[in-house]
């Protein structure tokens, strides 16, 4: 019986010397406690060495798929004629049996035998030391894992995610420090902030100058242009700032050193990010640039996760809040997110930004998938798609179209925009007419035009015009007469109304006097009646008294 054993260095075939001991599976491990006892059970018959790492990787991948490689088949045909072969994988044994017609065995005894051989491998195979076997196995395992995951050591997007995050943080810190320098030194020299707008140049000038009194003696030609330098020296002579101590200037200069060191490190980090983006995602970089591409990868989590997203998601990536707010309030959804900062979208007019962002997002999704899953390392696809997008942008803006990639129609002509263009190469559109100030006054022109029209009219038309004028005059006279008659009648009516009002007043006054007289008469009647009643009451009392006296 032969035993097939796979090592990182190659394939080994061992001859089993005592097959009777394989029946005792439980005590088989004791036979491999020492190298001498192990040599009494198995002996190396043949060894097939791997020439390089790629050959070892190819053989290992075939074994993982339970398939014998080409070299393994040749090795077994040479050394396994009429022998039974013990293997560690039953599926591999079936494949060898089908293709090479070699009887294969796989059971618990074979597995115990494999464990014993592995424990004494360096002793059973001469020339294979343990210090050599360990790095070989480690290198083969790394190569195998890269192959299985389709992983490339050059395409590490984690570094890009960290770099773009650090770059954004550096921008914030650099801006904060620069504003602190301006505010701090502004107490001493406030006019300098308006003279030098750039933060880095401001920090360099402050570091070189120190006290503003030194400005006239120093040479700023290496930092500033001549005009700015002259303005700085003039302003330093008449500055309204306060005086500061040497200790304050020392601290301000140290802060300027921090600003300059951060700016220098930011430039180095940007170069590193640019090189990594051109290596990891060259097509994405060609379409949207290094910064936008890195932010898309960082927002998606990784290049592979970003490759799983459709173009519509790539278009609004970074505008999730606006999207969900629009869906909640039933308003228009956003047209772009992080992709808005790409140069192609920035070149488009406001009314074309939505169309260009949609087209750019679809091409960007294709470029991301090609970078993540493709084998190519160039940016030809990205450059080709960028040329197409630029042609579409020119088409939307009404400019001449260049020959698009893959098109056979050539340069189409746009008649709407080229109808006034002169013939010949490099010709310009016809110049606009000059302004005529005499055309502002139109009164004289109207009179002249009217006189010319009257002269050109035939006699019949003139007669008709006169008749119309006479009719208009008659109508106007009638209207005037009616108005005068109406005015006279209105005056008469008003006088009649006034007379009626006077009469009513007189009648009302007379009626008021009569009413007062009637009221006086009524009062007199009431008084007379009351007196009569009083006179009647005592007469009755007197009658009663008389009757009593008579009784």
Characterize this entry briefly:
With 551 residues, this protein is mostly helical.
- Report the total helices: 23
What is the chain-wise order of helices and strands? EEHEHHEHEHHHHHHHHHHHHHHHHHHH
> What's the gyration radius in Å?
56 Å
pLDDT below 50 for ≥5 consecutive residues: which ranges?
A: 400-420, 425-430
Tell me the distance between the termini: 182 Å
Class derived from helix and strand content: mainly alpha
Described by the principal axes of the CA atoms, the overall outline is: elongated
Overall description:
- By secondary structure, this protein is mainly α.
- Helices cover 65% and strands 4% of the residues.
- The chain contains 23 helices and 5 strands.
- It has a 5-stranded mixed sheet with strand order 3-2-1-4-5, with helices on both faces.
- α8 crosses α10 (199-209), α8 packs antiparallel against α12 (246-280) and α10 packs antiparallel against α12.
- The model is unreliable at 400-420 and 425-430 (pLDDT under 50).
């Amino acid at each position: 019986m032969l035993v097939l054993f796979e090592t990182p260095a190659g394939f080994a075939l061992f001859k089993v010397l005592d097959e009777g001991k394989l029946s005792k599976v439980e005590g088989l491990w004791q036979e491999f406690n020492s190298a001498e006892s192990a040599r009494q059970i198995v002996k190396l018959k043949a060894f097939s060495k791997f020439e390089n790492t790629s050959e070892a990787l190819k053989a290992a991948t075939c074994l993982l798929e339970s398939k014998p490689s080409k070299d393994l088949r040749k090795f077994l045909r040479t050394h396994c004629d009429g022998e039974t072969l013990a293997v560690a994988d039953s599926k591999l044994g079936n494949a060898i049996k089908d293709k090479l017609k070699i009887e294969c065995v796989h059971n618990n005894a074979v597995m115990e035998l494999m464990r014993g051989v592995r424990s004494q491998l360096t002793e059973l195979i001469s020339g294979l030391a343990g210090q050599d076997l360990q790095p070989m196995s480690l290198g083969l395992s790394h190569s195998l894992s890269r192959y299985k995951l389709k992983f490339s050591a050059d395409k590490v997007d984690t570094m890009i995610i960290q770099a773009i995050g650090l770059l954004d943080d550096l921008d914030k810190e650099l801006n904060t420090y620069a504003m602190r320098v301006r505010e701090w030194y502004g107490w001493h020299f406030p006019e300098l902030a308006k003279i030098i707008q750039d933060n880095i140049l401001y920090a360099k000038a402050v570091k070189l100058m120190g006290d503003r009194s030194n400005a006239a003696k120093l040479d700023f030609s290496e930092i500033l242009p001549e005009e700015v330098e002259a303005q700085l020296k003039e302003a330093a002579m008449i500055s309204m700032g306060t005086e500061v101590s040497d200790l304050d200037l020392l601290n301000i200069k140290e802060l300027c050193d921090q600003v300059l060191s951060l700016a220098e490190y930011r430039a180095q980090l940007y170069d590193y990010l640019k090189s990594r983006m051109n290596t990891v995602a060259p097509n994405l970089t060609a379409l949207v640039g290094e910064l936008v591409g890195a932010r898309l990868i960082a927002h998606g989590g990784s290049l592979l996760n970003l490759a799983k997203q459709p173009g519509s998601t790539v278009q609004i990536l970074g505008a999730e809040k606006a999207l969900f707010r629009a869906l909640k309030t039933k308003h228009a959804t956003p047209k772009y997110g992080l992709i808005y900062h790409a140069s192609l979208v920035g070149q488009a007019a406001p009314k074309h930004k939505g169309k260009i962002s949609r087209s750019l997002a679809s091409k960007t999704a294709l470029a991301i998938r090609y970078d993540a899953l493709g084998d190519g390392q160039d940016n030809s696809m990205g450059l080709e798609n960028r040329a197409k997008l630029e042609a579409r942008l020119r088409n939307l803006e009404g400019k001449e179209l260049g020959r698009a990639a893959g098109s056979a129609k050539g340069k189409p002509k746009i008649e709407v925009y080229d109808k006034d263009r002169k013939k010949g190469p490099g010709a310009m559109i016809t110049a606009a007419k000059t302004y005529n100030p005499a055309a502002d006054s139109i009164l004289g022109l109207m009179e002249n035009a009217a006189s010319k029209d009257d002269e050109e009219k035939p006699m019949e038309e003139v007669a008709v015009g006169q008749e119309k004028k006479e009719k208009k005059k008659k109508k106007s006279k009638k209207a005037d007469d009616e108005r005068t008659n109406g005015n006279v009648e209105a005056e008469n009516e008003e006088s009649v109304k006034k007379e009626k009002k006077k009469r009513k007043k007189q009648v009302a006054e007379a009626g008021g006097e009569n009413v007062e007289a009637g009221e006086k008469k009524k009062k007199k009647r009431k008084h007379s009646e009351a007196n009569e009643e009083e006179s009647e009451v005592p007469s009755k009392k007197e009658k009663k008294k008389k009757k009593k006296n008579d009784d």
